[in-house]
Design goal:
It is a single chain. By secondary structure, the chain is of the alpha+beta class. The protein is 28% helix and 25% strand. Strand 14 and strand 15 (414-422) form a beta hairpin. Helix 15 (511-523) packs across helix 16 (548-562).
Length: 637
Amino acid sequence: MYRSKMPPLTVLARSIALLLASAVAFTFIRVGLTSPSLGRAHGRRISNKGSFTSHISRYSTAAVPQKLLGIRTSAPRPEGKTLTSRMPTAPRATAEVSSESPYMAPTEEIDRRRNFAIISHPDAGKTTLTEKMLLYGGAIQSAGAVRSRANQRKATSDWMELEKQRGISITSTVLTFEYLKNRINLLDTPGHQDFSEDTYRTLAAADNAVMVVDAAKGLEPQTRKLFEVARMRQLPTFTFVNKMDRPALSPFQIIDEIENEFKLPCCPMVWPIGDGDRFQGVVDLATNEVYLFQKGDRSKKADTVATVNLESDEAAELIPEELYLQVLEDVEIVREMLPACDLEKVRNGELSPLFFGSAMNNFGVEIFLKKFLDLAQPPKATELREGVIEAQHPEFTALVFKLQANLNPKHRDCMAFARIVSGKFEKGMKVKNSRLKNRQLTLSQAQILFASDRDSVETAFPGDVIGLNNPGLFAIGDTIFTGNQAVRFPGIPSFSPEMFMYIRSAAPSQYKSFNKGMQQLLDEGTVQMLRARSDMGEGSPILAAVGQLQFDVVQSRLLNEYSAESTLEPLPYTIARWVTNGWEAVEKAEPLYNVFVAKDRWERPVLLFNNDWGLKNLMDKHPELELDPWAFAPDVE
């Protein structure tokens, strides 16, 4: 049910603080700050290459509103002026919501949903683990590694042409399937840092996170950064230590890394028997059963050799003596020294269930999936800009967290990915979009997604991710809802880019296709687009991105999906700041030296700088300019 648990000002402050805290986590993704370097950054006034950690990291969600509203890269705001000028708060409803709303979701449908995102450093085996869970769930009949051999198929979750060519995940993918009476919505995210903003958006739609760790390497930089985002989102985090079929670190060493770096205790659910060529399987610590496996067809389910009690004579015969004695000793230490599984702590994000296996060879995957479904939280309460909303709320609400063009290249369509937060979706229902001033829309078609494949859906429930045809009416961060009580979730911002390039059509005959492709790619947030202040739409657009691979994706997709070749011309800028007090403030401050004055898609002023010195110099000379390193899609009047 919808409820407000505290005074409006306090809730607003918490919502803004949560947004800012999430932004800090995104900065971890891009800049790669560890705790010591973050501590050193606290005293700095300006940040490195677009990072704004130094301005807001010292404020928590408990900070008072005055501090929250005073966090700036320029002079403080005038008394009483708040961030709501860019984050409009939906008005409070005066009408009571009937508990007999036709859109109220049945409790049994909510309880059987499990929604989770998979995060990891590149090459830790995240996409392979995704494939094997789909295999065990019966969603696919044959799994293929991302870097496939001639006799292996491509990964289901990596459907984009460039993903197949380079063997990396480039875009987040939604995969929906049934397993053991549960409805699972799996969100596979990119591991490469250049696509971290896509991962950040996807985690806004997740109820749980699965962190994949390479057994030989332990915690890696991108794993650390993505974990911080999951923590900011307060997601229960499950850890799967992968590649145990290769020489690996000690399981105790991996546990120490997680506990020391993340301050997150682990509760092992299974324990590995050996590693590398001597990897025999795992012990289920709850039942004391040993699961021994043998290598077979990597694209098929693993064959179970035996399931025996660890302390039985049969186990002693099947496991080499040295490994058997070692696992007996390890299990005794684990039970004496490490915490037991506590469901409440797991769902509060205070304890991480720990699993070991080899996704490539199917070791431990099915055990992980079964135990995950028992421990993972079902659709949870979600914070609004005012109050929270439960999955049991009788009206339909959903968050648009991603746009994707050309899931079906033949139709040149654009789809909005919406996570249902409460209520029941029904085909043909009428909803309102809070960003469009509660404009009413008809959801005539919706699809359940499975990578690039999709099926029409008549009904869907909290925790489900559905695809909605997007004729330009949805933007990332939109809230859609039914009923008289207006609701709005905190928005999903676009963050400060660090690389800028002019993009041009390589052939005049392809100009129409080039423009159409650019429009759709911009809508889905692949990159951001700026123009010179004086450009009325006839000059070359400026692509703004976080990393080089984003430019590669744009050129590849323009060519493969729109048959439009393009050329890029680099620009020397590394920092962008939005001027939130508008063009009038810019005009009063002019002339601006060593600054490129641009505008975004919505004609808002954006200043580009070569380096930190240029930004600091402008701030010193013109403290009246209000500069922000992020931006939201504006409300439509």
